[in-house]
Each structure stands twice: as structure tokens, then as C-alpha cells.
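Quick start: what a row looks like.
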Amino acid sequence: MKIIRKDNPETIFPYIAYVPENISDHPAVLIQLHGAGERGNGGADLDRVLVHGFCKIVNDDNLKDCILVMPQCPTDSFWAARVESIRRFIDEIIAEYSVDTNRIYLCGLSMGGFGTWYTAMAYPALFAAIAPCCGGGMAWNAGTLTMPVWAFHGLDDTVVSPSQTIEMVEALKGCNPYLKYDLYENVGHGSWEIAFSEETLSWILAQKKGE
């Protein structure tokens, strides 16, 4: 597995990317948005993006023809306020790695879960699938989410109310036939420890726009 660090003024967000040894000329990309505790301004702070999420489980075998990209949100901001910047960042990544635009995936946890919902609602045609964990969105706008969605939340979460995900799920039930969700009993805010599993990764990587 190759690890790439990009931390310079030319990038919209500093990021770390995990690139498997064997990828095609046009690989998929999975963008992972971290939580509030992992914000920073690059430099030594950048390693914070590796604290949680798929970076804990990926390897050359399960990250099949896909690059995992983990950008860092600035300390004084939050993902839901940077939706346009996230889109421009993804465009940068598409160009940098010659990404297959039918296989762009977005996931996030906590603050990154909110960022996932909001970015997908703003640019639904961009993503082949999304996996928001313990975040929330605008349930009244859920009809824009036409891609496969797998949402997660712990029912004992006292940091972000599970009602945030439940409202999105209930809104999607009537309009998105590709909806999956898990609401974990007796699980608090750290539901990503269960949600961001090899099973979830395999499901994400199986999605492709138009199929």
C-alpha cells in the first residue's frame, strides 16, 4: 500500500491517500470525511485524519482498484460549510489520479457524516454511493439522493442525536429503493467502529453509476 501525503498551498484541503499496489489506469476513489476532533491545518495535524474510519481496515486486497482519500478540514471550519470546496477538491482528485467518474464514493463520520449528507444533496450526480455515519442532513431535501445510501447511527448517541439519521432514513424510504441503514442498539457516538467494516467497504466498492 502506497501512502501519499499532500500538504501544500496548491491543494484545497491537505490530505492523506492510501493507494493499493495494483490499480487500473482509472481507479475508483473513496473520499472519507473525518469528525470534528480531527480538524487541523496540515503539517503535524494531518495525521489526525488517520484516527478513525476505513484507514483502520484497508489493505491491498480489500481496497480493490480504489484510492482512499482523507482530506483535513481546517480547525476553524466544518464540512457542511465547505460543500463547494469539497466538490472542487474531488475535481482535483479526479484529475490527479485519473479517477473513473462512475465510481466516486463519499463517506464520513460525525461532522463528516453531516458533510456527506450535505455534499451528496448538493451534487447527487457525482456519487455512485454514500455512507454517512452518525450525522444528519435536511430530510425535506432527501429526494435529491438518488444514489445507493447506507446510513449508520448508534441509538445511544448523546453527541449527535440518532433522530438526525432516523429522519433522513424515513424520508428516503419513500423515494430511494437503494437505501440501507443500521441503527445500533446500546451503541453511543463511536458507531463508526462497527459501521466502517470490510462488509461496508465491499458494498461501497460494488456500486457503480448506471448499474
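That is the whole record. The chain has one domain: 2-205. The mean pLDDT is 96.
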